[in-house]
Amino acid sequence: MKILVTGAAGFIGYHLCELLLKQGHKVVGLDNINDYYDVSLKYDRLKQLGIAREKAEVFNKPVVSSLHPDSFSFVRMNLEDRNALPLLFGTEHFDKVCNLAAQAGVRYSLENPEAYVDSNLVGFLNILECCRNHKIKHLVYASSSSVYGLNKEIPFKVEHNVDNPISLYAATKKSNELMAHTYSHLFDIPTTGLRFFTVYGPWGRPDMAMFLFTEAIVNDKPIKVFNYGKMERDFTYIDDIVEGVARIMNQETASLAQADKYRLYNIGNNNSVKLMDFIQQIEQNLGKEAQKEMLPIQPGDVEKTWANVDDLIADYDYQPNTDVSIGVKSFIDWYLDYYGKTVS
């Protein structure tokens, strides 16, 4: 198939492109490479896919990978560009689309709400319109566990009420689900929303806990432990995540009944890990104890997440089987190598 992956320079997007290429698909990666975090990391991810930085820096100019010249290309583009994105769809004739591009981050949405409206709402509408007008066979898109808000029922199930988001980021993701439902209903477009739970692993985002903790410990700085450490997360290793996404992308959608055209799934590790246990795993792998600054919970944060992924297991034989001890070691090995760090 020919697949568009938006957010291709991002953490999950990069890993998904790599897997889809290994499976023999043709992939077009799209990303605007914004400066929410260090763009060098984004360009280095693209370099792993064969796209040189100087080629990827130019907007709206598709470039072909030197590593995968017949199967991977990249274009720097804003999702909300209502002229450029339809032209890309009209030129490339995609079979399927995986929309991972979004302005990420719960806390940052308190500081820069406009960025979330532009990318997550206007950009997603543009994707939906392009899928409608170019007969895309299946749109898979990133939602988030943050839509559950202050839900107290554990583990989180897709059937639970998600009408009370506690951050603008969560509100935009809930809006994406509603928008996708409308387009599936009105225009017969198969859409699948994936509520991602805390994803970690090599090439991870610098604003995520795994990265922040590791960087602080290596550099002899205190780590910020919110809610005084009384937090739990469904930490999910990146390989398990993209394997699940790829299984959905590879499904034949032509036979889907009308009632199945709109679907939502949790995608996580199917268990919850205490934050302090997670920190301990990092400490053990670094051979160094963290200096801990215990702080109250942050606005927009929740105390515990835990994904019920029974539906994804039943429908796709999804198997999140990477133990947190293995995943943490893999990240730290990558971090030390990528940044040329040693632990003293």
Helix-strand layout with pairing:
Layout: E1 2-6, H1 11-22, E2 26-31, H2 39-48, H3 53-56, E3 63-64, E4 72-76, H4 84-92, E5 96-99, H5 113-133, E6 138-144, H6 168-187, E7 191-196, E8 199-200, H7 209-218, E9 223-225, E10 232-233, E11 236-237, H8 238-249, E12 262-267, E13 273-274, H9 275-286, E14 292-294, H10 310-316, H11 324-338
Parallel strand pairs: 1-2, 1-5, 2-4, 5-6, 6-7, 7-12, 8-11, 9-14
Antiparallel strand pairs: 3-4, 10-13
Helix pairs in contact: 1-8, 5-6, 7-9, 9-11
Protein name: NAD-dependent epimerase/dehydratase family protein
Pfam families: Epimerase
Organism: Poritiphilus flavus
User: Which percent range fits the helix content?
Assistant: 25-40%
Beginning-to-end CA distance, first to last residue? 48 Å
H-E string: EHEHHEEHEHEHEEHEEEHEEHEHH
Widest beta sheet: strand line-up = 3-4-2-1-5-6-7-12
* The top level CATH class name: Alpha Beta
User: Gyration radius, to the nearest Å?
Assistant: 19 Å
Q: How much of the polypeptide forms β-strand, as a percent range?
A: 15-25%
Number of separate helices? 11
The CATH topology corresponds to: Rossmann fold
Low-confidence stretches: none
Outline the biggest β-sheet: 8 strands, mixed
Q: What would you call the structural class?
A: alpha/beta
State the CATH superfamily name.
NAD(P)-binding Rossmann-like Domain
Give me the CATH architecture, please: 3-Layer(aba) Sandwich
Mean pLDDT: 94
Structural domain tally: 1
Cα shape: globular
